[in-house]
């Protein structure tokens, strides 16, 4: 009886090994940041920078900035980074590539966008430099550090 149990276990292990090693590898999923070139091939678009959330609901998260840009705001349907806060406008700010430089544009937000200091004037459009701090709203409850690629 013991020999039959050992034999059955051995057969089950061999079957499991055959099934495991015959699995086809999953085909890679296209990156969210892809674009189709003229020949119909998908190519990966490298980010032009990253936003590192320093404070607020996304603290510690990193958001890549594609050349087409990303938007931050309250509206889930219109923004890449959604912040559900009364301080943040529905479409608060856009960050992306313009004329070869990473720029930030305040989208007529109610509480403003500030770079490096809440004491400075509100930013309408500015070129971002590596290490710049971005504050959304006058109280700076939501802040991000820009890291250039």
List the helices and strands and how they pair.
Blueprint: H1 2-22, E1 34-36, E2 42-44, E3 49-55, E4 62-65, E5 70-73, E6 81-82, E7 93-98, E8 101-106, E9 113-115, E10 125-127, E11 133-136, E12 142-148
Parallel strand pairs: 5-6
Antiparallel strand pairs: 1-2, 3-4, 3-12, 5-7, 7-8, 8-10, 9-11, 11-12
Write out key terms for the chains shown.
5-stranded antiparallel β-sheet, 5-stranded mixed β-sheet, elongated, single chain, 35% strand, alpha+beta, 1 helix, 149 residues
The major pleated sheet works out as:
5 strands, antiparallel
The percent of residues in helical segments reads 10-25%
Q: What is Rg? A: 24 Å
Strand order, sheet with most strands: 4-3-12-11-9
Compute the number of strand runs.
Answer: 12
How far apart the termini lie comes to 66 Å
Alpha plus pi helix count: 1
Write down the secondary-structure element order: HEEEEEEEEEEEE
Q: Kindly state the mean pLDDT as a whole number?
A: 85
Structural class: alpha+beta
Overall spatial form? elongated
Parts with pLDDT < 50 across at least 5 consecutive residues: 25-32
In words, what does this structure look like?
- The chain is an alpha+beta fold.
- It has one helix spanning 2-22; strands at residues 34-36, 42-44, 49-55, 62-65, 70-73, 81-82, 93-98, 101-106, 113-115, 125-127, 133-136, 142-148.
- The strands form 3 sheets. It has a 5-stranded antiparallel beta sheet with strand order 4-3-12-11-9, with no helix packed on it.
- The chain contains 1 helix and 12 strands, in the order H-E-E-E-E-E-E-E-E-E-E-E-E.
- The chain starts with a helix and ends with a strand.
- Mean pLDDT is 85; it is low at 25-32.
